[in-house]
Amino acid sequence: MPCRIIDLQTLPATPWKNGGGTTRQLAIEPPVAGLEDFAWRISCARVASGGPFSPFPGADRSLAVLDGAGLDLQLMGASRTLRPCGEALAFAGEDEVTAQLLDGPVSDLNVMTRRDTWQHRLWHLHLEGERALHNDAEVLLLLCNGGQVEVRDRAALHAGQALLLKGEQGPLKLRGSAPCLQVAQLYRRS
Fold it and tell me: Could you tell me where the beta strands, DSSP code E, fall in the chain?
């Protein structure tokens, strides 16, 4: 399916093994893959308590905070704070990462790609009015994290909804008001 609207609230929440939160999987490739054999995976997590991240050797990861006060991360001995609508953090799946909540639970967006076959970037944009977005990615996810976004000739997204495009490159015309539109672009390595 090349174009799909995803409503985060309708996705099942799967508890983490350590009880520190839940995950909602937005998309995975191949569709029947699990956590050990995916080519790429996009998910949202509700983080209820701090602790170490699960390792994903051979995968590259990006993490962006969607709501809450934020996360204080220890990544290979360096401190990094993530806040809603701030820059995403990119790191290797085998890196040792520990998170502490700044002030209560947070939700985040997590993108993972197997580094031998895929690469990605995760970023956000502030939309007020109209804007063109060039899409040269094989897979594109737009997650509306507040407000409303109309993707011309495609869909209208409300807060908590995402648009997943596969194999459709070219310009996208965006219109609306969204304080933080998350953009994930995935590229197959040649």
Answer: 3-7, 14-15, 21-29, 40-47, 51-52, 59-67, 71-75, 78-82, 89-92, 97-101, 106-114, 118-135, 139-144, 148-151, 155-158, 161-166, 170-188
Q: How far apart are CA 171 and CA 143, in angstroms?
A: 17
Share of the chain above pLDDT 90, in %: 88
Residue-range domains of the chain with CATH? 10-116 (2.60.120.10), 119-188 (2.60.120.10)
Q: pLDDT at position 17, please?
A: 67
**What does the DSSP assignment read for 124-155?**
EEEEEEEEEEEE--SEEEEEE-SSEEEETTTE
pLDDT in tens, 142-183: 999 999 999 987 789 999 999 999 998 999 999 999 999 999
